[in-house]
User: Fold this.
Amino acid sequence: MGASVQVEEAAAYLASQTSLRERLGVDGSAVLEPKRLGAGEHNVNFVFTTPEGSSWVLRVNVLPQPFHDNQVLYEYNALVAVEPSGCTPKPLFVDYSPTSLGEGVLVESFCPGDPLNYDALQPGDLERAAAIMAAIHKVDPSGVQTLHEVADPMKELFGECQQRFALYRASAYADEGIIQWVEIFFKRTQEAIDGLRPGLRERRIVNTEPLPSHFLLPSSAPSYPAGYFVDWERPLLGDVVQDVAFFISPAVSFWDSDHFFTPEEEAQFLDAYKQQVAGEVDLQDFEARLLPWRRLTALRAVTWCCKNLIRYKEHAGHTVAKTQQKLPVYLSQDFLASLAESCF
Assistant:
């Protein structure tokens, strides 16, 4: 489990990495000064500007995702795959050598814009987010061989949730009240999956984690792209409805805000998305797939909190202040009851 990376370490890396400087067209005497951009559970990000004025993101992995061994290479290849969308960072450089920072380094173009803010939604924001998501889903996935693909994406994610919850139940922090709620969530989710017609005819590139903070909306955006989508830690070839359900889920919106989608806002986003992908992405059985994905998204969020509660209680490795604050809220009786009502 990786530790966090400091700005001084990032500066030293940029100063010494000759291969990267060659890719940037920067000579050895130029100073590249990184500034901390933000951090998540798996990556620490820095932004730096070259002498001619182009801005780049130095993305350092500190904790790999579960289904691959080389996080930065996987993410680099993902950015190559989704680049035709026109609304994602452009990959420039990847380093997973023993001398890289953390668990590996990725350098990608800096995308301008403010993160989508659910607490201060502006007219057109949800339509812009829908257009960005649609642009990604419309990318032709034929020939993409670098992304994870499984026969049954729902079954795999359900299994991940079971593994996380098993760790929590076996820990010293297991709480019987939480266990009772999550067991109900597992039962209801399994029922929704069992009621779905088997098989998925079309697979597309899906991000699987479209948090609002990953959508960047420039204040003066051109007609295309409507903005940008950043953070490509664990995309796969799967069902577009997974991204849609994640975006509108109360288990997701509350992570970056105090907002829960109203029925009108949810319909607004869904209508805009469907209009954007109509004729290019298979929407057959869309509504039927939305229910199990909605439940899976909530189950995923809760079991993720259960597992990470252990790490945060034990202060093991890289931590994020927002997660420290949100974990007890997500695992509170009040919040679990609200998820039961809205999703299960």
